[in-house]
Amino acid sequence: MRRLWLIFTQAVTISVAALFVVATLKPEWMHGDGSPVPAPSAVTIVEAASTPTPIFPASVPVGVSYAKAAQRALPAVVHIYTRQMARIPNHPLKNDPVFRHFLSAPERTGLGSGVIIDTQGFVLTNNHVIENADEIEAVLNDGRKFKARLIGRDPETDLAVLKLADASSLPAIAFAPADSLSVGDVVLAIGNPFGIGQTVTMGIASALGRNHLGINTFENYIQTDAAINPGNSGGALVDGTGRLVGINTAIYSYASSDGTRNADSPSSGGLGIGFAIPVSIARKVLEQIITNGEVVRGWVGVEMREITPELAKLHDLPSEHGILIYSVFGGSPADKSGVRPGDLLLAVDDQEVQTPHEMLDLVASLPPGQVATFRLLRGNRKIELKVPVGRRPPPLAMR
To answer: By the 8 A CB rule, do 207 and 245 touch?
Structure first.
């Protein structure tokens, strides 16, 4: 009996082994019709295509470069170095060779950037770059150096125009049309940050028409996240084709109490928020300075406030558009024409004004001597006054 059981188990083992070998090497023998065994449905192997399907559609450019825009603009951007001579205080011992060393003030130097705007060597830069400078030198991208003299400056927009001595056939930048820039457009900032050499940074136009920043009197800035650092002031902000859209001026910094600081302040720290003067303003200032040596603006002599619910309640103002005439300078054109504090200014020459910024820009654009019509609300009565436009005094004269 034991022998029969042993023979049976051996036969079963041999049969299972044979079945395994046949199923592995000749699976078609397992089916009477000779059809192959189907693969398990849970696993599907997909062969890689010989030509991979692109991730992006063919219309989307991959590896965009702005090298041509940079090459177009770089030669027209200069480094500006300034020097302010030492001022020896008026002291009885200032001519004594021993005490002169202790009485002398250290010489001050500065750096910034500028943009060549024509082939004869006119350069546009920031006023704060060259302010109080006794000597100004401009260095081109190719290493050439030129002495520069100040043609004129406009502190209220922080712009200045220089002329390079004995310069001709220089590379000049191309100006973009005044309203060609849109939020989201790519821009390049070109300048000499920290004096390390000409540098190009890229970003976008983050916002347009920024004002109420407390940087200058007339503010209408391009905001950008292109890196702007000390030394970039006065340099070019260009579009994706290399055309000038603005003059780099300032950066937003947490280091200052009011949130703003000049881009050339050594203690400023960037937060990805920079400001540039748009080419529309820069061009007007440039043309006036080259023609007249200064910028002439209209002025009527009023201080204005934007109407807030608090002001409306305090002055019992009706709920209308306009701006509040807060005060009137004595002897000013507005004073002589009968404009009074508390009046609500609705329009100038039939152009409605809703913010002090709009009114300031509008009056500044009027030529001195022109008579403007002010439409006012005084109490519950609308009146019109003829106001002759005067010439805007220098900033210090209005303090």
So the answer is: no
